[in-house]
Amino acid sequence: MATASIKAIGAYVPPTVITNDELSQRLDTSDEWIRTRTGIRQRHAAGPEETTATLSYAAARSALEEADLSPQAVDWILVCTDTAEMWSPATACFVQAMLGAERASAIDLTGGCAGFLQALTLAQGIVAQGKTVLLIGTEVLTKAVDWSDRSTAVLFGDGSGAFLLTPGEDGIIPRQAFSQSDGRQADILNKPYGGTRNPLTPELVAEGHHHTIHMEGRKVFRHAVHHMSDAARRVLQEAGMTSEQVAWVVPHQANQRILDAVAKELAIPPAKVFSHVAHYANTGSASVVLALADMLTQGLIRPQDQLLSVAFGSGFSWAAQLLEVRSPVPARFVNKD
Ligand code: ACO
Predict the structure, then answer these.
(1) Ligand 1 mean position to 151 CA, how many Å?
(2) Residue 277, ligand 1, Cβ within 6 A
(3) Would the pTM count as exceeding 0.85?
(4) Which atom of ligand 1 is closest in space to residue 23's alpha carbon?
(5) CA distance 181 to 85
(6) pLDDT value for 173
(7) Which of 177, 187, 210, 311 has the fewest CB atoms inside 10 Å of its own CB, making it the most exposed?
(8) pLDDT of 1
(9) Do 225 and 261 touch, CB atoms closer than 8 A?
(10) pLDDT < 70 positions in the chain
(11) Whose CA is nearest to atom 40 of ligand 1?
């Protein structure tokens, strides 16, 4: 069984930035409220022509170019997203066509903000068969929020990131992983309308229902801190490591207060918990890979570093993943701040 290695990372955020002050002109909110409750100062937002597939393509192409690999070499394209291009077919099929990755099998995976880390475990299984995988996490959440709901509209941003995974012993090696779900909590964070349970009829639309996010923020906060910390402890224990041996925590960028609370739970100095939530807000499935791409392009990650990634999101689902840096990994982050 071959070891999976992350050989290159590509990332893309749309060029358009929406600041908190700009949001305050459309909604009853303020820069001060958003910053103190979440740490968010701005978010990148897709333009009218930008979609989940176009963002995914931009990130995937960057990863392939950084790895100096042809799209023809890709065996599988996995797109993790909760904001698909269409109901059908999979967003990954559009990405395959745009890339010209004619040999690839393409499929989507929906796991909320933890989905990318959950999918990394699946991708490792495919790479173990000797295959090359593009694992992409993408969200266009600004097209999935209710812009009249100030409690959710301020939290999210758009972006995409891609890992190019091949068999190998160099690059970044995913090691111990843990993930779990609790579907009993599905009603706390969801998009209740537009699916088969509540198809969007003209009557429902007239009542103000759309395919937008519903969230009970306080409950999400509590569960997120508990499960991210618990998952992190589990992988550290399995690896026989202490938190002092972790060079960086690379968490899902939900909000700064969640990150601070997780750091406290794990007794890890906040300075070792990477955060760029101020710039990009919560980008769901894209957030962990955008964070890694940012760190690599800033030169923050060095060979021999042990990274601990943790995430939590709708489902509820949560995950933790240890990543061992064996050698430098090329990364590109398009439209980075
Ligand atoms: N601007 C101004 N006031 C607001 C805003 C806003 N954008 N949003 C809510 N408020 C008001 C509410 O209406 C409420 O007013 P009231 O007291 O008059 O009723 C007041 O602020 C407090 O509302 P709460 O929802 O209780 O505020 P809280 O302090 O819990 O902060 C927040 C809300 C930031 C959403 C917080 O609960 C949180 O961070 N939750 C985690 C949610 C999260 O990160 N979700 C992302 C998806 S899941 C994930 O990625 C982990």
Answers:
(1) 5
(2) no
(3) yes
(4) 7
(5) 25
(6) 98
(7) 187
(8) 83
(9) yes
(10) none
(11) 217
